Amino acid sequence: MADGQSAVVKNQLGTSGPFATLRPLSQLTFQEGDRIFLACGERFQGPLRLSLQNKPTGTLTISQYGSCSTKERPVIHGRSLVELEGSGRALRSIKMEGPVVQVFSGNSPIPRARFPESGYLILPENAISSNDRIPVIQSLRGKKLAGASVYARTQEWFIEEKTIVSEDGVIEGDFRYPLRPKSGFYLAGKAWMIGEGSGWAYDYDSKTLHVRTWSVEPIAVVLSGHLLQIEGKGSVSIKGVALDSAGGDAINLKLDGMVKIDDVLITRSVGNGVAVFGSPQVQITNSHIEDSGLDGIFFAEVAQALVNHNMVVNSGIYLGPRSSLAAINAHRTQSATINENEVLRSAYIGIRVAGDARVHGNIVKSACLFLSDCGAIYTWRRGSNDLRAPVVISRNTVIDVVGDTTVKFGVFDYFSGIYLDEWTRATTVRDNIVVNSGQGIYLHNARGNIVEGNYIFGARHLAIVEKDDAPELAGAEYVKPEVLNIFINNLEVGGGDR
């Protein structure tokens, strides 16, 4: 179906439109009370970038026009068709100014080429540590490196992304942690990385897209940038629409008013599925977020967050290992309620909170797929002066916390069902079920917490681990140093080392 047959804007002055595309909307300044309706069954090419001015008459609403079935909801997408010269399976190239971050053949993503094709290049024991370059090891000699992107796993729990600026491996800016023996990295962005199968690479130096595909279907590209971006003063409601193929975040909101996102479908975003900055109150409910390159849901300096009855799938996994944090990342909120969500397959943490949070009745399955030193549900307060209300983690089910130990610096592997770290204080962990994790519940420098009535099945290391290797953290002002954690009626079934 052709892109965009009916986009209607309604405001205080009446009805404007309908518009055939979304482009005119980006030229308007919206006020609270305005409404944007998208017709059922239609596809609208983005990006859509809106400016909102505060006017106390309601909420800017983006929703479907009429009552759409699930399969007919309107779609905002980030794809553009491109013409490639030649035919067949030959490697073809086209000049493109905008950075290309996704490529499709028909509706199927073409894999981004990388080297090595899977896994990491692991630095040997005799490698020299470096903050400013990658070593040109034997497998890289004679290959064009300048302009390539490097993804370096410099910690078990951290991946850094840099650009190589010279053929001898110098990078732009320093690594936060040095590349050293046992570190790993992979490269992307050069035509020589494309094998005989389907693949693509965008060369930033020459501004050229290189593609090989075996399909005869048309090629579409996605350029870097957020798909739906709203900034300004006021409140927003987004309901009943779909967003697909974002070159950055699918939804990126920087607002000083309330945000409501309900019954939204988000697929294939290079950045976060949803990212909200600065709002006093955010509600994300009944939505499905799948295949994000970074976090599924991300908050920054949000006062109150409510995340209920969503499904978040493959967060941080789309397009390969990168520096994602969590499927639902509410660490930077003043208060968070995260209830009855399903979190399936996350690269790193499943649900991440700090203080004044309630994490209840969620299912978190297959966390920590790309990193380790990790937890499916993870708490970390910001320091000794973080005096927010306690956290309660209750009646959650955690299954399969596996961890990727490809890069491993320490002796022990830490990938836990529930992980309380550093400044975590006065947290209650009650009536949770943890199945098949490295550690069922891990308290790392966490003091004064209550762990009660949890069921832990098949922990590969220990069901409950209490570790205090940074004693200076125990003196947080609001917890006396002598207050230890309290364990009541926890049940362990099966497991590994004792």
Layout: helices, strands, pairs:
Blueprint: E1 7-11, E2 14-19, E3 29-31, E4 35-39, E5 43-45, E6 48-53, E7 60-65, E8 75-77, E9 79-82, E10 92-95, E11 100-105, E12 108-109, E13 114-115, E14 121-122, E15 149-155, E16 158-163, E17 184-188, E18 199-203, E19 208-212, E20 219-223, E21 228-232, E22 236-239, E23 242-246, E24 251-255, E25 259-262, E26 265-269, E27 274-277, E28 281-285, E29 288-292, E30 297-308, E31 311-315, E32 326-339, E33 342-346, E34 349-353, E35 357-360, E36 363-367, E37 374-380, E38 392-394, E39 397-401, E40 415-421, E41 428-430, E42 433-435, E43 439-444, E44 450-452, E45 455-457, E46 462-467, E47 486-488, E48 491-493
Parallel strand pairs: 3-6, 4-7, 5-8, 6-21, 7-22, 8-23, 21-24, 22-25, 23-26, 24-27, 25-28, 26-29, 27-30, 28-30, 29-31, 30-32, 31-33, 32-34, 32-35, 33-36, 34-37, 35-38, 36-39, 37-40, 38-41, 39-42, 40-43, 41-44, 42-45, 43-46, 44-47, 45-48
Antiparallel strand pairs: 1-2, 1-4, 9-20, 10-19, 11-12, 11-20, 13-17, 14-17, 15-16, 15-17, 18-19
